[in-house]
C-alpha cells in the first residue's frame, strides 16, 4: 500500500451544534444541530471508512487491528488520536477529562483525554473557558456546591488562528460562535461540571459528574507554556503548534498555487485540510483534496508530494 487513505467523515448531532459544517465545508450533515465532524477516528463510538484504494470500505479501527504495518507497527489496543472539527452554535458544557491513570482505573479504558484546539473561525466576542480560580480542591468543591460559576471559571477571548492546549485535568468549555479543529487522545470520556440547566436532545437535563470532575481537575490551574516556532522550507511555511507526550501538531502552509512540498515519510501522519485545495501525489496515485478533507498518510508510503495553495494541519502520535 503506497497511497494515502482518504476518509469518510462521521457526524455527531449535539444540543449545542449548528450548520456551519455544511455551510463552510459542504458536508452532508444530518441536521442543523450538528456539532462535530469526526475526521480521523478509530474510536468505537465513531470510526471513519476508507473511500479509496485496496482498503476501501474498511474502517480505521479495522486497519489498526488488522494492518498495523500502515501505522509503523505502533503498539497499543486503540488507535491513539482523534481529529475533529467542532461547530459550537451555543456554549458547550463546562467539563474536564481524566488522565490515563484515572481513565484506566475508573472507566476501564486505555486513554484519558488530552486535547488541543486550532481556532478556524470565531464570532466577535467569542470566548473559551480555560481553567478555574480555586486555589485548593476544598475551595473548588465549595464554589461548585455554592454554584459560584461566574467566579469559578476563567474566560479567555479567542480569534481565528489562535491555538489552545488543553491537557487532561483542565476545566474547559468551547463558547458559542467558535469553529475549531481539535486533535485529542482517542477518548470519549467527558465529566460535566456545569451545563446551564440545559435539556439534551431527549428533553431531559443532561447528566452532571460533579464528583468525578472535582477529582480529575488540576488544582490550582496552571496555564501551560506554549512555544510555536515557525520556519520556511522551499516555499512551505511550517509552524509547530505543539509537541507533547501524546501528539505533535504542525500547520503547513503552501503560499501560492504551484508550490510543491516533497516529503520523505518514516511514520504515519494524520492530515486535515483547513483552507484551500491541493494535489497529493504518492507512488501509486494522484488525489485532489480540498478544505474539510481528512486523510492518513500511512507509514508504507515512502515519499509524497503536495502542491497547491493550501493550509493543512498535520498530526502525529508521539506515544
TrEMBL record:
Cofactor: Zn(2+)
Enzyme class name: isomerase
Keywords noted in UniProt: Isomerase, Metal-binding, Zinc
The UniProt record lists the keyword Endoplasmic reticulum: no
Stretches assigned to the Mannose-6-phosphate isomerase cupin domain: 240-315
Active-site residues, record numbering mapped to chain: 192
Molecular functions (GO terms): mannose-6-phosphate isomerase activity; zinc ion binding
Domain Phosphomannose isomerase type I catalytic residues, every copy: 6-105
Gene3D superfamilies xrefs: Jelly Rolls
InterPro entries: Carb_Metab_Reg_Kinase/Isom, Man6P_Isoase-1, Man6P_isomerase_Firm_short, MPI_cupin_dom, PMI_typeI_cat, RmlC-like_jellyroll, RmlC_Cupin_sf
A GO BP entry: carbohydrate metabolic process
Enzyme Commission numbers on file: 5.3.1.8
Binding site for Zn(2+): 97, 115, 172
Family: Belongs to the mannose-6-phosphate isomerase type 1 family.
Name of the protein in question: Mannose-6-phosphate isomerase
Organism: Salipaludibacillus aurantiacus
